[in-house]
Amino acid sequence: MEQDNENKNLAEIQAQWVTVRGRIRQKIGDAQFKSWIKVLVLEDYDDHKVILSAPSNFVRTRIIEQYLDIIKSYWLIQNLKINDIQITVIKKENTKNTSTKLESKNVDSTKTDKDIFKSISSDLDNRFTFSNFIVGKPNELAFAAARRVSESKDVPFNPLFLYGGVGLGKTHLMHAIAHEIKKRNPLRRVIYMSAEKFMYHFIKALRFKNTVAFKEQFRNVDVLMIDDVQFISGKDSTQEEFFHTFNALIDQNKQLIISADKSPQDLEGIEERMRSRLGWGLVADIHPLTYELRLGILQAKSEKLNTKIPENILEFLAHKISTNVRELEGALNRLSAFSSLIGREINIDMVQDLLKDLLKSSQRKVNIEEIQKKVSQHFNIKMSDMSSARRSRTVARPRQVAMYLSKNLTSRSLPEIGRRFGNRDHTTVIHAVRKVEELRNKDASFDEDVQLLIRMLES
Ligand code: ADP
Ligand code: MG
Q: Which end of the chain is more exposed for a tag (fewer CB within 10 A), N or C?
């Protein structure tokens, strides 16, 4: 089944390439076409990238300077998903064997070192650019360092070591560096890969006795980025190899950029000499995001959505989801999809319901006493009135709100809540919950009061 799909995609991509070539031929004429376009070979593809090979560096440079944009736009017309076209060089030393990787896809033994090269750098996400990165206190150092590395002609610090918790933007920054370097100079060779992929390729090279070729491809690189290097820990031979590659590149003054979830000192299972070398250059950490930065990110991202998410919802999310940006994005996307489905703006209640799972994991625990305190302050009554027998509206209503919040924000049972409010019966609590629900639906300003209280209690 998977094989079928792959063959189908392959046939599609090849057909697209034929059409693209035809268009370009019409546009640039036969002579130019023969010299430059006809010699390109479709080598590989995935969901959104196509790799073509040129027979020499000379042709490759010319293509990049003169034809790449045309190829890109014609291809985009054929297939909206293709947003990246890369040109590699494969010299035809063996003219009889013109089979490309595509044609010999399942025959591993025919793989050459060039095949490894072609697939070694991972795709870059086009959304991960500097302009899409929101900067605040927690990530300003990492951001500045990343910019510096991508703008410098020389090597400002080596390596640049970025670290921080999950979903704080390490991968985003690395891709942004790669985009920027390529934009400034398309000929600079940038390899971005995860440490896992590095290991995978290294082990594969070992198996095919291809380690020389494996090392060779790093020799020609200008910038090497290895993401999530914590995954190399403990794997002795790969760590050894990584260390050599690393040293060799540093010695040649090639820029290295490494990311991990911890600082070099705190990385476990890494040899001492490696640890110290990782810390040689600039070590920049990304701190957990502040409320302001979370809100800034949400505002920026929500502007790009088709549906409008009200500001108070964004604030609510920024308060409630404190863990990582990926979760913030997930929440936004879910809300946006829902809102466009139902065709109206979302409110806090819908959010609570839609994001139950996300909110639960990052929810702060509140207790009944805190609720009573906040509610009394808010309505300007004495805390003791939460459990007093007084029944005047001025104290009874706040008390009901506090019961309602206790029911919704804590896991306490109705009888227990009743007890904490001056030994009242659980039916009194039920009545209070219903009453407050009813009022929230009827009275917008009352509803706002309750929302405000919820926000204050949970942040
Ligand atoms: P990490 O690699 O640190 O685990 P990622 O770089 O994959 O995190 O970031 C997770 C998601 O959050 C990505 O979609 C990324 O675009 C987004 N993101 C992280 N930080 C920011 C930021 N400061 N501004 C905008 N988007 C961000
Ligand atoms: Mg990452």
A: N
